[in-house]
Design goal:
The complex is a heterodimer of chains A (about 120) and B (about 120). Chain A has strands at about 5, 10-15, 20, 25, 30-40, 45-50, 55-60, 65-70, 75-80, 85-95, 100-105, 110-115. With about 120 residues, chain A is an all-beta fold. In chain A, strand 8 (about 65-70) and strand 9 form a beta hairpin. Chain B is mainly β. In chain B, strands 2, 4, 5, 6, 9, 10 and 11 form a 7-stranded mixed beta sheet that branches. Chain B has a 4-stranded antiparallel beta sheet with strand order 1-3-8-7, with no helix packed on it. Chain B is globular and about 35 Å long. Classes of the chains: A mainly beta (about 120), B mainly beta (about 120).
């Protein structure tokens, strides 16, 4: 079965410092992987997605993620955190089921950005 | 382009009462999803529609939950009767995905249900 594990439930960074949110995946075939962000009381927004093209994926708001098959990882990074980046981040894998594709979400990483 | 619309945004009910959530997907999206997100967890799929057909309802607790998507556009998710454990955020998403290909799912803001 396809699944993801987010290695940190909470991450705290200072404004202007790099962000690293870690995600490992488990998949029996080449997966499609996503990062979504959820701000309080708002819907989930797609940050970026990997679908077996370039292994370094650039997303919105300066975020990027690198697909590393040898490490089964898909970590999310940003060079410089902004206060507005504080939110919940979900790593997601697309899993093929009998009725089509389904998204399997990680448990989320809460990012805190301090001044 | 308008996003996925959900209503109500918040709902508080007493246990054993019925409740319904409504979703209007992005225009042209044939696939619609209902997810439940418990506190501190990622969303979990309840049901997936392709047009009017529910193609995956394996995770829907059918004894109390029901859903419909008449005319393949708007959808309603109902709980009757509600239990304390149903307190969660109910998310609707849509995409132009088909059985053979995965596509980006766009999420609505969700309905936060509190059962007292």
């Amino acid at each position: 079965a396809q699944s993801v594990t987010q290695l940190d439930s909470h991450v705290s960074v200072s404004e202007g410092t790099p962000v690293l949110l870690r995600c490992n995946y488990s998949s029996s075939y080449s997966p499609s992987l996503f990062w979504y962000v959820q701000h309080p009381n708002k819907g989930l927004q797609l940050l970026l997605k990997y679908t077996s093209a370039a292994t370094l994926v650039k997303g919105i708001n300066g975020f990027e993620a690198e697909f590393k098959k040898s490490e089964t990882s898909f970590h999310l990074t940003k060079p410089s955190a902004h206060m507005s980046d504080a939110a919940e981040y979900f790593c997601v894998v697309s899993a093929l089921t009998n009725s089509g594709y389904a998204l399997n979400f990680g448990k989320g990483t809460s990012l805190l950005v301090t001044p | 382009e308008a996003g996925v619309v959900q209503s109500p945004r918040y709902k508080i009910i007493e246990k054993k009462q019925p409740v319904a959530f409504w979703c209007n997907p992005i225009s042209g999206h044939n696939t619609l999803y209902w997810y439940r997100q418990n506190l501190g967890q990622g969303p979990e799929l309840l049901i997936r529609y392709e047009n009017e057909e529910a193609v995956d309802d394996s995770q829907l607790p059918k004894d109390r939950f029901s859903a419909e998507r008449l005319k393949g556009v708007d959808s309603t998710l109902k709980i009757q009767p509600a239990e304390l454990g149903d307190s969660a955020v109910y998310l609707c998403a849509s995409s132009s995905e088909t059985f053979l290909s995965t596509d980006t799912q766009y999420f609505g803001p969700g309905t936060r249900l509190t059962v007292l």
